Amino acid sequence: MDRQRLTQIASGVVFLALCAVAVLIVVSQAGGGSGGDTDLEDVGLVRDQLKRIQQRGTVLGDPHADVKVIEYADLQWPICHDLSVDVAPDLISQVVRTGVASYDLRQWPVIGDPPLEQSTDAAKAALAASQQGRYWNYVELFYRNQGTEESGYVTRAFMTAIARGAGVKDIAQWNRDRQLDRWDAELARTASEADSLDLGGTPSVVVEGPGGQRVLTAPEFDDIENAIQEVS
Amino acid sequence: MNGHRARGARIVPDPPPIRTKLPARYGPVMPSERAVRTVAALLALAGTGVATYIAVVEAGGGAPQCLAGGHGCQVAADSSYSHLAGVNVAVLGIAGYALLLLCALAGGDVARVAGMAIAIVGFGYSAYLTYVELFVIDAICEWCVASGALMTLLLVANLVRAFGYLGAGLVGAGHDPTAGHA
Fold it and tell me: Which of A67, A115, A169, A221 is most deeply packed, by most CB within 10 A?
């Protein structure tokens, strides 16, 4: 084999190497997208869904609205995911955005064996995002990328990817905020509320207004809408 | 002894019968292949060390310690770009550096071309990750920068070796008298 032939072969190998780089980059950007991984789906959808709606702590919309829709949810639970994907978009666009009611999603970790480590970690991560006004973005994006419950997907990498996708600006600060003791107190308070309301599990929705209170379990949008009318 | 008389009584030994053309073309600044391979082997060893450190720390659930402070290493470790198809890129880095080390230790055209190809892939992906650090996740990880720098130097070394010594040792095409095994 002469040198010219070798040079031709080397040129072909260089071309293949460049193709390999392109493939690696495409694979890196594409990802699996099957949920529970760090290649997030629906980042833009969530951003648009919540755009220009006031967030204060865990409350979405006008905190002084006469009617309050309060959901008790576990970020790991697939039925809560279903409510987030199937019900919350209408609730947000037709009820919250119009100022009819506020929407408060309270973290109530119930999935897994005590100490409910994964659900609690996810809840604290969401609450930490509230410190930067991104609680709802975090919650909705988490649900859109939820993995199989208790499968171990709620890792620091996953939660950080959610935070970044949710628009949490200062990730280092968010990491520190996740460790705050106050979240334990807040989660305990929410669990106590759920007990006092005798909620059967997640997702439970409480609709409060001048006309009273309604408690719903895994409701459809129509159920919530009817409850809002009843308590208004 | 083969030789011929030149200018009287002095016996001048025959030049090596076959000599590669490229080193002569590149002039006296062209390093020997032995030197290039030695440098490539050392760079690959250093790269293996860096990649191993990152992989081991991340396997333990942590993040590499940024020596100059800051959270760049942690942010990079937490980002989705730290994994490729579920595999930590540091592990891929270990594999890449190990292959480059093998190519540096081996002689012949297969090793020259393979080393060049692997270095191109490694450099290209390192450049992409550097772009991601600068413009996507806004975080600079010193260990990633070190790996990128090593991969850049490995690309240079392997390109010099491939283009400078490809075909060296071919019967009838010349051989490199400076060539040796690192």
Answer: A67
